[in-house]
Amino acid sequence: MTQTLQEQALPEQATPEQATPEQATPEQATPEQATLKHEEETLDARGLVCPLPVLKARKRLQSLASGSILRVLSDDANSLTDFRHFCTEQQHELLEQSKGDSCTMDPCTMDPCTLIVHRIRKG
Predict the structure, then answer these.
(1) Is residue 2 part of a domain?
(2) Could you tell me if 100 and 109 are in contact, meaning their C-beta atoms sit under 8 angstroms apart?
(3) Could you give the CA distance from residue 3 to residue 34 in angstroms, rounded to a whole number?
(4) d(CA 10, CA 87)
(5) What local confidence, expressed as pLDDT, does residue 100 receive?
(6) Exposure check for the chain: N or C terminus, fewer CB within 10 A?
(7) Number of domain units in the chain
(8) How many Cα atoms within 13 Å fall on the side-chain side of residue 74?
(9) Is the peptide bond before 16 cis (omega within 30 degrees of 0)?
């Protein structure tokens, strides 16, 4: 059977929810798909105090492609505020800041420190 041009259905474009990360265009990719398309690196800044976690993150972000994710591990309580300001000023997206359980030891006081995880998408 032959089909006319009108009968030949062009493939529908997938909606953002249906598209795989490879199929989604940048405009239609959901945040989860965009995260999957880009690499995610981890920077361990535990034991460093302000401003070193942010300075090390800035240096690492310079080497990453736009849209890449940097996960920063820190135990400096001031880093919560520092990373919010840094991301705002540098047009990066702060995806997450989470506090974990006390899991590291402060080398000076030998007190337990809280692990803080910052996830940043490079702008």
Answers:
(1) no
(2) no
(3) 38
(4) 43
(5) 78
(6) N
(7) 1
(8) 27
(9) no
Coil, strand or helix at 37: helix
The pTM (predicted TM-score) of the whole model is 0.64
In a domain, 102, yes or no: yes
Instruction: Give the number of C-alpha atoms closer than 13 A to the C-alpha of residue 52, restricted to the C-beta side.
Output: 11
Residues in CB range of 77: below 8 A, 6 or more apart? 114, 116
CB-hemisphere CA count at 13 Å for 8? 5
Q: Is residue 14 part of a domain?
A: no
Reported as a single tens digit per residue, the pLDDT across 31-90 is: 555 445 567 999 999 989 999 999 999 999 999 999 999 999 999 989 999 999 999 999
**Which residues constitute the domain of residue 39?**
34-121
Residue with tokens 């359980």: 101
Answer yes or no: 50 catalytic: yes
For residue 53, the domain's CATH number is: 3.30.110.40
Strands 40-44 and 69-74: parallel
